[in-house]
Amino acid sequence: MVAALAACSMTKPPPIVPETLPDERRPIDDLLQTLARRDKQFKSLRSLATVSYNGPDARQSFQEVVVVNRPDRLRLETLYPLGVLMIVTASPPDLNVYHTREGVFYRGKSEDLWRFTRIPLNVAETASLLMGQPPGTNGQWRHEGPAIVRDAGQGWKETIAFQQNEALPIRWQLLNPAGAVELTAEFGDYAPTAAGPFPMRIALENPTQKRRIEITYKEPEVNADLPSTLFVQKKPDNAREVALDSTGS
Questions:
Q1: pTM
Q2: Fold of the 28-235 domain
């Protein structure tokens, strides 16, 4: 959804997460129970969004239709002034991408999603983060500074930080064995919905690649009944088909 548009000027929005957070001292079980409850409350999403992308290859802002059906179904429609520029559908094991202006229909596997989002996450992880949920909460967690932390294996760690006045997640991070942040997700501007507080702003960042995507939702529809046909595509008759494993990207 990122690489298809020409760059345009953007104003820098206020930060989603405060620069400094106090040490987290609330009982870990209480925090995990909140996450488990939210995991059950938020199952699907359909929303128009403004997306801002900042990376070494471009700086762009555009409109996106985001459709999520957890655990692992996605539809992303990138809009431009003349209509829909690109449609990405992921329904494991398949990923289909139709670039309308180029007339190219890409066919691949769902693990190829990162080629279009520019963020190295699988479909289920992306679906969770787009709905304001850390991608996993199993394991043994401990307090560490302003967050709770768990070991993710082979020296990797995950952290989750929460709002101070309410136990809502505001930041998830993945740290490599050297302690450097590989991935960050931020959640902010929570608004009430029928399913509970929902983050109207989400950011996904890959610091090592200097890429950041900020998403601002507009009137999100939470837990709508979404047909499975939304998450698959058929190649238009006039489109040229390309296998993703042959693109070399």
A1: 0.90
A2: outer membrane lipoprotein receptor (LolB), chain A (2.50.20)
